[in-house]
Amino acid sequence: MKPATNSNAVVKMKKERKWKRWTIHLFPIPALLIYGLFIVYPLFAALTYSFFDWKGIVRGEFVGLKNFKDLFTLEPFSSLFWGAFGHNILYFVLQMIFQNGLAFILAYIIYKKVKGSEFLKIAYFLPRLLSVIVVGFLWKLILNPNYGALNVILEKLGLEQLQKAWLGDPDTALISIILVNCWYGIGFGVLIFLAGLQSIPKELFEAGKLDGADGLSMIQKIVLPLMVPSFMIMTVLTFIQSFEAFELVYAMQGSQGEPYHSTDTLAIYFYRLAFGGSAGGSTTAVGLGSALAVVLFLFISFFTALYLRYMQKKQVDM
Amino acid sequence: MNHTIWTRPFYYVFAFLIASISIYPILLMILSSFKTSAEIFTSPLSLPKTFNLDTYRNLLEMIPFTTYFMNSVFVSVISVLLILITSSLAAFYIARFTFVWNNIIFFFFLMGMMLPIKLGIVPLFILMKDLNLLNSLWSLIFMYVATGIPLSILILTGFFRTMPRELEEAARIDGAGNLRILWNVVLPLMRPALGTVMIIQFIQSWNDFFFPLIFITDDLRKTIPVGMLSLFGEYSADWGALFAGLTLASLPMIVLFFIASKQFMEGLTQGAIK
Fold it and tell me: Which residue of A82, A169, A241, A254 is 20 to 30 Å from A306, comparing CA positions?
């Protein structure tokens, strides 16, 4: 009898183990459900929305590609689209120069071990802690034409001719916002580049020195090629961020991209189409908005993928 | 080699000049919060004459700041907790088991870091409406958990993979189930990675302004960032109170940063570098 009970116990244990082993498949379920429902589903749904006519947030009939056609050919939608698109490109270019370019130089200075580098790192990073809405409102006060600190400082320095209504003038409004964005993001860039620099093996610099390389050619021949991954990360992140630019513009210039749509970005325009205030009126155009979302989504993914592939290939070639 | 001798001071000046541009606006914000509006308008750059707390008193009368604050705390804390639970469960599964679909699941989550979720805001709005979550703090919590999961899974999976399996095997032989192994054996060793995830996600959910802008209209359900929006909308002339509001909104993060600045800076860059 004894062996039989034993094997019974073994069978029971095995069953129990099997059940326990099966439960492991429950582990990723909560994450999959939440992520699927609140991230993946809405983006797919936005795609399907763009093929329908909409009355408010009630779906009408299937209209095929009409929303896309209207977005690109019907006025004022098409000129608003291209205007905003141009602003996004400027956003990207200026951020690459003033935020990432500067961040690289600053990271290099810190890497070369100036005194107080810990303080510098903290200082550059500090703005990143604020909410973007706080950043926008704070700078709106600083850039105020009458009482704002910037114009007062310019006056104290005897540079009255440079005083401006920074956010009220279509020529300077967008650039001001972009530079504020650079102020906010530079510390992050410094840390990314610094991490990249610190991962370069020291022996390479020694070898370079032996070969008689001076500072500049050292940067050119050793630093820049090895920094490709960091440049790649920052470029892709900046690209995505500048084509999604919304919060800062909204905080500083509202949903109309004032003055006269001169600070309109695609995301701001999208917000107006989806939640009202498009083309001056308060009516929503969910169909057009969804079409815009799809175009922007494809644009961002296409260029991100293309860039990543190109840079990966380049890295292999070197 | 000679040129480094005279370029060094130039580097110095340049680096510290930019640093002062980074710090000065924040300093100005804090200092101005102690001034009356009249004082700000007449001498915007000078130090406050007295450390006047009236602006803060005014602010608390104008807007229900403590309510905003409690809402922000509730949303951020619950979001971070749920992210830690869901992500460590999923990351444990992805890193420790070798089912054929594991890589697909991992890739599926990672994709989320590139997806511009704001573009799905119309379907999200309708979804929240159908789930009866508009004007509920849970709409924000679900969004922060969903947007936080990809990066958290990336960080935690990376960390799981570097950890030796021996302890787990020993616990398994002792008859411990998967959940017990994860909770008692693995997670205690994961503290640094969990800390990183906590910091990143706490900053994200504390500072976010986009989702409450869309989902929350009830004043008593607002978090601090959208609360600032109502403050600036209604009291745009009282600069003392505006600066006080901005300072109060930022203070918790700045204090936390000075307690753990290293972890903050490492945490926020870690996800990008991997």
Answer: A82
